[in-house]
């Protein structure tokens, strides 16, 4: 897997997304298609940087595309961590679906990418996703001990 190609401009790991073509279930594809008006076969995503782009870019943004992705492309960057305005409002955490969508990990992911590089971050990204969705958190405590 090419970590750089499979990392969205906002820092999300496309390979770990529930909607990625390698991960999506038929049930999730059907539920999503019904909820946002896409055909079931349009829901599985090839990744933000694929030729088709994110399955939801136009369906959920009135065909304007992802503002974060558009900004990164206009600035000719790979991801937001390379920007001199990082972090900015495009990376605000989302409340809607926070328990199911990994968007609140964007700032953390981008900060790690900036600190240790995209390849090293790619090696730890699966563990980050697992802790975010399945782990517990307590201020001042080692998450490994919870």
The parts where pLDDT drops under 50 for at least 5 residues are none
Largest pleated sheet: none
Helix-strand category: mainly alpha
Shape category: globular
Domain unit count: 1
Mean pLDDT, to the nearest integer, reads 83
List how many beta strands DSSP finds. Answer: 0
Q: What percent of residues are in strands?
A: under 5%
Helical stretch tally: 4
Helix amount: 25-40%
H/E element order: HHHH
Rg is: 16 Å
Distance between the termini: 32 Å
What attributes characterize this protein structure?
globular, 146 residues, single chain
What would you say this structure looks like, in words?
By secondary structure, the chain is mainly α. It has one domain. The chain has four helices and no strands. It is globular and about 40 Å long. The relative contact order is 0.15. The model has no long low-confidence stretch (mean pLDDT 83).
Element layout with pairings:
Blueprint lengths: L25 H11 L30 H8 L31 H11 L1 H17 L12
Helix pairs in contact: 3-4
Protein name: DUF3795 domain-containing protein
InterPro entries: DUF3795
Pfam families: DUF3795
